[in-house]
Amino acid sequence: MPRKKIHDALDRLAGEEQKFLSAEFLAPVLGGGKVNVRIAGVVCAMSVSPRGFHGFGVFKPVSHTQAKLVRTANLSERRMYLELFPRVLLVISARSEQATLAVPSNSADSRFSVQGQIDVRLIDEAELFDTVVARFDGSQFYFDQIDPRTDPAAAPYLRQALANSNKPAELDRPALTPGQRIAYSLNYAQRLEAIVEDERTRNETRLRDALEHAGAELRDFVEHRDEYRVNYEVDGQRHTSLVQKHNLTVQTAGICLSGQDQDFDLASLVGVLRESREFL
Question: Would you say 23 and 62 are in contact if contact means Cβ atoms under 8 Å apart?
Fold first, then answer.
């Protein structure tokens, strides 16, 4: 490159830097006290103060690497910033204090290749299954607004269906989008998994209490349709028995009881096992 062109480029960059340092800029802060800004086409990371600020703010550069908050951006400034980026419709699939996750409303949207759920940033008003407009800046999806064109009754319908534990195949509302159905299926699966886990925890507690009351120790169990296969330990000896679910009546004791297995429940069987060992 000719020397004059190099000097011209450097002068232009210096001019852009000076212009940037003398102006204010708007940027979203996600946490950690950092923002990315573009100066003459180059993306630069800057530290902002106060460090705990979170949201859209208007900042004044202090140097090339630091800026301080002037004020929180107003709604129109935030909207002007977001409108610089392409819009995408997302359906809220998870909402917590830590994060808001979403899935694309229309799986046919080829502009974005998404694996799994999307982390939607700086969102404050949407609920589970709401369809929202988000803006993608190349690295993050930012909340813009709740989509005004989506059926407003669809999200409450899905929340009620989930509360009723309706299966995804039982959803019966016209014009649900693919994203709404995916978000519902994800939540239904999580709820079903939680129910199964809670039930297993209750079953384990029930078996453990019955055995500990008799002085035995539960090792593990396998749940079948109407019975449990229970592995437990009595005075250092391992045993396996089949018991009925509803009352823990013994079906198969694991030792010969001359056909009298069902005369015992799991707790009383422990005493029989001790007596049989003493007899032997």
Answer: no
**Structure token pair of residue 129:** 């299954």
Number of domains composing the chain: 3
Three-class SS state of 80: helix
| 35, 24 contact by CB (below 8 A) | no
Q: Is the dihedral of CA 35, 38, 39, 44 positive or negative?
A: positive
* The amino acid at 136: F
Of the residues 47, 73, 99, which one is the last residue of a structural domain? 73
pLDDT tens, residue by residue, 229-259 = 999 999 888 989 999 998 899 988 877 777 7
The boundaries of the domain holding residue 18 are 3-73
Listed residue (32, 77, 36, 72) closest to 55, CA to CA: 72
Distance, CA of 105 to CA of 83 (rounded, Å): 19
Position 33: which residue type? G
